[in-house]
Amino acid sequence: MASKEGYRLEQEAFVSNHEGSTWQEVIFTLLPNVCGILLTTTTLGVLRKYIDRNVTVVVEFILIVIPTILCCTVLSEHIISVCIVMIFISTLNMWLLGNKSIQLSKLDVRPITGKRPFITNFRALTNIITAICILAVDFRVFPRKFVKTEVYGYSLMDTGVGLFILANALVAPEARDFSTSRQTEFQETLTKNIKNCFRSCIPLLVLGFGRFVAVELTGYQKHVTEYGVHWNFFVTLAVVKLFTSMITSTINSKYSLFSGAWILGMHEYIMTTKGLSTWVLGDAPRDDFFSANREGLVSVPGYVGFKKTSQCWILYMDIDFDNYTA
């Protein structure tokens, strides 16, 4: 019987040193999520008179979650076929809806204000695909091409943090000042924003610390070259949120695209010309906190720049931030 440490090493080897697939395949793997939303919406439209509203949760699970699970596992080689079937059924549903004698004047149609369904759907799908990948990655039924790449490349799991950063950027509380002139003093604004942001970061930091402790106590595999020894996904989200709030308090939010692009450009410049990428990807000893967590720390500026560029979309959307939790 293998020792606890030996089993842990086998687990780490199982999720390490993978090269991923292609960016086209990653996009196709995410498509069943989107097709599931279309299929669910049209199906519920056809059956709205025959099913109870409480049953819609079951319908959504069957038409969104299950196809996504199958496409990430046993049907990973048949994703396009699955999407074609889902689109075909959705088209049939729309044809049925179009042939129904519906008088639009009698329907309670209201303009969409405040909460945007597409943002809610995007955030929900991000959570679904992330949960599936995290739970399935330790099993052989999950293709190794979907596991995070070791150095460079594209994979399904590589989209995880980026999707969460984008989802959070679209509903970030600090973005509520995008269309307003700053009347308060700089120091007051900065202090207030950082205080509020730090308060909202506490749950993420608690989750990050809890995950670290849980991994150590259970002997679960640690893919050190992913984030570092102590760093993890939750800590990255918290730190990115904090730095983004500081930048938003310093630079007017209408310049998000330019400030984000500048951060991304400088990050790439330093990574490629100052030897930072060599240090991160090399075998340097992890004898202090910074070197032990270099992957997580060095990735922060890139995620901050990405979040800032993503926030520019809020300029064009009338969003009621009170309807969302970032």
UniProtKB/TrEMBL annotation:
Residues passing through the membrane, by range: 26-47, 54-72, 78-97, 118-139, 151-172
One GO MF term attached to the UniProt entry: glucosaminyl-phosphatidylinositol O-acyltransferase activity
**Pfam families reported for this sequence:** GWT1
Keyword Lyase assigned: no
Which locations, inside or outside the cell, does it occupy?
Membrane
The way this protein sits in the membrane is described as: Multi-pass membrane protein
One cellular component term from this protein's GO annotations in UniProt: endoplasmic reticulum
Mind listing the UniProt keywords for this protein, alphabetically? Answer: Membrane, Transmembrane, Transmembrane helix
Main location group: membrane
Q: What InterPro entries does the annotation carry?
A: PIGW/GWT1
Q: Which residues form a coiled coil?
A: none
Q: Which GO terms describe its biological process?
A: GPI anchor biosynthetic process; protein localization to plasma membrane
Question: What is the name listed in the Swiss-Prot or TrEMBL entry for this protein?
Answer: GPI-anchored wall transfer protein 1
Question: What organism does this protein naturally occur in?
Answer: Camponotus floridanus
Q: Which taxonomic lineage is given here?
A: Eukaryota, Metazoa, Ecdysozoa, Arthropoda, Hexapoda
